[in-house]
Structure formats: C-alpha cells, structure tokens
Amino acid sequence: MKNTVVEDYRKRLVGKEFETLNYGKCVIVDYKGSQKVTVKFYEPQCLVTCEMGGLRRGKVKNPLTPSFYGKGFMGIGKYCIEDKRAYVLWTSMLTRAYCEIYEKRQPRYKDVTVCEEWLNFQNFAEWCYGQELFNTKDDNGCYYQLDKDLLCKGNKVYSPETCCFVPKEINSLVLSSNRRRGKYPIGVSKSKNRFIAALSINGSGSQVLGSFISPEEAFQAYKVAKEYNIKCVADRYKSEISRKLYEALYKYEIEITD
C-alpha cells in the first residue's frame, strides 16, 4: 500500500516546476520519497537530489551557477564547504580577484583573475589536496599560504601552473609596498640631501645600508641586499619548499619599479 501511495504521488509531482530563491526554475524528474527528490535545473542544466521541504521553500541550489562574485561555483563532486581549508582559500582567492571593495583597499590586486578551471571549487580543491605542502605549517603553527607570483613574477592569474604553497615568511619577502613608501624607489627614503637605503630583515625593523647622493644608487644598494636576503631565506627553507620554488627564489630580481 505504501509503495502505491508513493508511486501515485510521484506521478503527480514529476514534471512539476518550482522556483528557487536564487537559482531560477527547476523541474522534478524523479521522486523516491520526500527525502529523495531529483530535480533538473534549466540553466545551467544540472540534476540535483534534494528534500521536498527545501524544494517547496525554494532553497535548492544549482551547483553550476556562478554564485561567488558572479564567477565561482561549487561544481558537482565530493568536495564541499566542510573541506574548510580548501574552501576558505578558494573564496579568499575569488575575493582578491573579483571583489571591488577589496581591490580599492589592495590596489595591487587590480586586474588579477582566476583561471577558468579554478572557478569550479571541485577542481581547486582537487588541486589543493594533491599538493604536498597544502597542509604544511611553519614553525609558528601557521599554514603555508597560497601564492601566485613567486614562481612567475608579475603574474596576475591564479592557476595550477602559477600557484604554490609557501611559508608566510617567504610570501612576505616580496610584497609590494607601493602604498607606504612614497615617491622614491622601494627601500629608499630621503634625509636632507641624501638618499637612505634600508632593508627590513625577518620583521626586525629596518637596517640602514648606507646613504647615497641619488635614489638610483640607494636603490642599487637595496637591490643587492634584498636579493641576497631572499637567497638566504630560500636556503633556510630549502628542505621545506618545492624545488621549483627554491629555484624561482634564487632567480628572483628586485626592480626599481617594484
């Protein structure tokens, strides 16, 4: 008798459309009970299994709809928001690339984008779990950070080819300081009629490298010291980072436009 009731209810429901709150219309294509209803979204086309109560309230989501800044979508697969570290990295990456408010606070992210593959959370999470250093922590207990421009300086695209996980200390080594350094090159300030080159090492405050008659000379002193410092840090982390990153750090050049 119970199976007959379910079958009769299924026949009445299959083909019935429902409007969702944020994902457009969907139609019931199968019903195996109130806890297992299959619906099809029209655009993008997608099959989703849900509960009847949630469907009636319009709370069924289309995982292929770009719902994060109009770009990112959850996708279909085994990864979900419970994969917290990957999910936080993904949403933070989308924020840096596509949030206008964030760009105003951090102008260095202007024109940054995320590759098409990583707009799908499933692909990004799969890549993360495949990285040896994904869950690595530094000596302070902080997870390694996702970086997009150490392997390829000046890179503006988050992608599997350009990104890697790095310790916070390394990631902070080459951060641009456009907002706070003023009109002189990076590492250079002016005192009276002289130009001072100074370098901050390991967050211990600036160390004066010398005083020069031109900003260009001061920058050259900073450049030599900074590139040497980057190599020293790379050597210290050699066994804790990828070979590819180690080699990129050794080739890294500081430019006067940085």
Describe the protein's architecture and organization.
The protein is an alpha+beta fold and 258 residues long. It has nine helices and eleven strands. The mean pLDDT is 91.
Secondary structure: elements and pairs:
Blueprint: H1 2-13, E1 17-19, E2 25-31, E3 37-42, E4 45-50, H2 52-56, H3 84-98, H4 100-105, E5 113-114, H5 121-129, E6 145-147, E7 157-158, E8 164-166, H6 168-173, H7 178-181, E9 188-191, E10 194-200, E11 206-212, H8 215-236, H9 243-251
Topology order in helix (H) and strand (E) letters = HEEEEHHHEHEEEHHEEEHH
Number of helices: 9
Strand order, largest beta sheet: 1-2-3-4
Going by helix content, strand content and strand pairing, the class is alpha+beta
Low-confidence stretches: none
How many individual β-strands?
11
Radius of gyration: 26 Å
Q: Strand portion, in percent?
A: 15-25%
The average pLDDT value, as a whole number, equals: 91
Give the helix level as a range of percent: 25-40%
Shape: elongated
Task: Please give the alpha-carbon distance between the first and last residues.
Answer: 76 Å
For the largest beta-sheet, the strand count, sense and barrel status come to: 4 strands, antiparallel
